[in-house]
Amino acid sequence: MSSTRWIVSSRSPRRLGAGLFVLSLVAACSGKDPYSPGTKLGTFHVTAALTHTSCGATPNPWEFDVRLNHDGSTLYWIQGGAPIEGRVDGAARAQLEAEIVEEVRAADARTKRDACAIARTDVLALTLRGADAQPTSDPSLATSFGGGLVFTFAPTSGSDCSDQLTTAGGDFETLPCEVHYDVSGTFKSAPR
After folding, report:
1. Which H or E element spans position 151?
2. Sheet harboring 144-155: ordered strands across?
3. Which of 75, 77, 101, 133 could cross-link to 10 by cystine, CB 3.0-4.6 Å?
């Protein structure tokens, strides 16, 4: 199992191309970059410590960088694709969610095996902290954050993903399964 990037949505290559064209057109007309909305806060270095997995081998610790932007109380998590957004509440908490459905294996008419598509749901719940290490509901004052990240993997309805289990040479010990991390992020560099 590979969890090196937080992925936003699933699209076929044809739909992705059409979506990118529409986003480019909107950006050209509005002057706004759909991949970097709002005001840039900077790059944060994230360390994720595994707290639970039912999926099998999982990176621990897992470290990566993410860019954060904001527009008022809306926080944007930007990491290699379209941003994921969530609202920061009065207690300095935000929840960001994303889902992708990926076809792992096409159907095989010869062996009469159904396709395998796996839905991955990501939920990140975090609390922003300012320079004094106290919670801040103002994203522009955030210098660190902490919280939890949960990945859930489940075959879509009608999928046959039995060959994706470790007992059959696959990557998952069981499906559906979950991976839980405690995450902490600290300011690394100013926006570019």
Report:
1. strand 144-155
2. 84-87, 74-78, 62-71, 39-53, 177-189, 144-155, 116-129, 93-105
3. 101
In the chain, the N- to C-terminal Cα span, in Å, equals: 33
CA distance 187 to 66: 10
Parallel, antiparallel, or unpaired for β 177-189 and 144-155?
Answer: antiparallel
3-state secondary structure of 168: helix
* Prediction pTM value: 0.78
Q: Are 96 and 84 in contact (CB under 8 A)?
A: yes
According to the 3-state scheme, what is the secondary structure of 32-90?
A: CCCCCCCEEEEEEEEEEEEEEECCCCCCCCEEEEEEEEEECCEEEEECCCCCEEEECCC
Instruction: Tell me how far apart the 2 most distant CA atoms of the chain are, in Å.
Output: 63
